[in-house]
Amino acid sequence: MIDYPALAALMAVIECRGFERAAQRLHISQSAVSQRIRQLEFRLGQPVLLRTNPPRPTELGQRLANHLQQVLQLEQGLLLDDEQAQTRLRIRLAVNADSLETWLAPALATAPEAQRMDFEMVVDDQDVGLRRMKNGEVMACICAAEQAVNGGLASFLGKLRYRALATPTFVERYQCGQALGQPQPDLAMIPSLIFNQDDHLQHRFLQTVNPQQPAPVYYHICPSAGGFIRMALAGLGYGMMPQIQVQEWLARGELVDIVPGYHLDVPLYWHYWQTESPLLKGLRKALTNSARAVLEP
Amino acid sequence: MIDYPALAALMAVIECRGFERAAQRLHISQSAVSQRIRQLEFRLGQPVLLRTNPPRPTELGQRLANHLQQVLQLEQGLLLDDEQAQTRLRIRLAVNADSLETWLAPALATAPEAQRMDFEMVVDDQDVGLRRMKNGEVMACICAAEQAVNGGLASFLGKLRYRALATPTFVERYQCGQALGQPQPDLAMIPSLIFNQDDHLQHRFLQTVNPQQPAPVYYHICPSAGGFIRMALAGLGYGMMPQIQVQEWLARGELVDIVPGYHLDVPLYWHYWQTESPLLKGLRKALTNSARAVLEP
C-alpha cells in the first residue's frame, strides 16, 4: 500500500511551492514534511521532488500526486462530512489551445462542484496529450483523436469550426476572396499564419483549395491564439481561426473569408478513464452539455 | 567564408518544410539541395538539419539560418533592385506572451517594411528569451530585463499595467473588494489564476496586499492568456491581467478589482544587437512609437 500521508506531504509541497508553507497547510512541522518525502523516496528508490525553488515534482512525483487526487475524488463519492466538503481538488487536464481560448472555461464552470476544483491546464499537441493521459500525468484529455487509450473511453463533444480569415484590406491587396470552387490565386504564396510547426490546419486548408501547392511558402509563426488573431487583424497574414473565437470581428466585417464557403470542422473528444470518479463524471456531463450548445454537432 | 548558397538551401528546407518544395523555391534540383546541405554538414563536422518530417534545424542549423537572415537584411541596406524588393525576410523574435496578446501585432504592422516580413514569434520566459538572443537564435527580444546582453542594447518601450481582477459575483462570494490599505481577507486562500509555474505576478500581488501569506494556496494553472481571461469571466478565480487586454470587460463592469487601487507595472525593453540592420532599425522605431501610445510611460 502506498504511504498516503507521504503523498499528501508531496502534494502540499508542490501546490504550496515550498516545504514551510506545506507544513503550515498540513499543520505539521517542516521537518516532518521533509522526513515523509525522504522516506517515500527511500522506499521507491528514486526522487519524487526536485529541490529547486519552488520545488518541482519528478515525473514519478507528478504521477503520485495525480494518483492521490484520483483517490481523493473517489473518497468524495463515499462520504461528505464537513472536512471533506472543504477540500479543494486539483484536476489536471490536457487540452488543445483553441478549446481553452474559447468554450472550455465557461463549460467547466457549469460542473456541479466547479467551485471546489483547482484546474491545471496542460496545453499540448494531441499526441502528447494522450501520452500524458497514458502516463497518468493528467486525469482527462480533450483532443481530436477518436481512439481511446487502453483502459480509457472517449466521448464526442462536438466539432470546432475553423475558417480561413483575414481583413478586407488584406483580401483586396492579395486579390483573393474568390468563392470555393472558383479559380483561386496561388494561396500558398500569400502570407499566412500558423500557430507552430505542428499546426497542420493551414496545410489542410491549402490541400483543399490549392492542391498543386499545399504547403504555405510565406508564413508567420505565432504560438499564441490571441496574438494570432491580432496579427490577422493587423493585416499581416490570413489564418485558420475557430469561428466561435472571432464572432465579433466577423459580425463587424473586420475579418472575412479568404475563400468564402470554405470551412474545416475539427472533432473534439473527452478522453477519460473507465474508473471515473463521481466528481469527474459530473464534470464530463456538464462539459458535454455545454459543448453541445457551442460546438457544431 | 560561410557557404551562403548552402545556407540558402538550409533555410529553404526549413521554411518550405521539405526538400522537394525547397528545390522548387530555389529553382534547383532536389538532389542539389541535399548535396549543398550535406557538404555544409561535412565542413562543419556536425548536422544542421534533423531529417524528420518536416525537417527541423539543429541548434547550429537555426543559428546559421538566423545569420543568413541578418546578412540578407544587411544586403537590403545596400541595394534595392527588383529582385531584392520581392524577397520576404524572416524575423525571429523572442517575446513575452502578454505583449503578443495585446499591443505587439498592430505595432509590428506599422513598421515601414512590415508587409515584406515573415514574423516568427518565440514565446518564452524572459531569461530564456535573452539566452536565445545570446545564442543568436532570435534577432531581438521583448522582455522585462533592463540589462542588455554582451554586444547588445536595450531600449525602453513602456510599462504593461496589470490589475488583479475577477467577476463581481466572485468578489461578493469571497467577500473581498476592500480598497488597498484597508484590512484584507486572506487572499492567498481565495482561488486565483496563474499562467504557469514561472509566473510570479500573483506572488508579487500577494506580497503587497497579503504579506503574511505571500504565496497562493489555491490556484488554477492556465498557460493560455485568452483561456486565463475566460476562466476569470467564468468565475473560477481571480488573476493578474494586462489592463489593455481586458478594457472592454472593465468598461462593462464584468471584471472588477479584487483590491481597488492596486496595480503592478511591468517594464518592457526591446533588446537588439549593436550591428542592427536598417530593416530592424525601422522595426524598432515603429515599435517604440506604437508602444508609447499604448503602454504606461
Automatic annotation (TrEMBL), chains A, B:
Coiled coil: none annotated. Residues 2-58 form the HTH lysR-type domain. GO terms for molecular function: DNA binding; DNA-binding transcription factor activity. Keywords: DNA-binding, Transcription, Transcription regulation. Pfam families: HTH_1, LysR_substrate. Belongs to the LysR transcriptional regulatory family. This is LysR family transcriptional regulator ArgP. It comes from Parathalassolituus penaei.
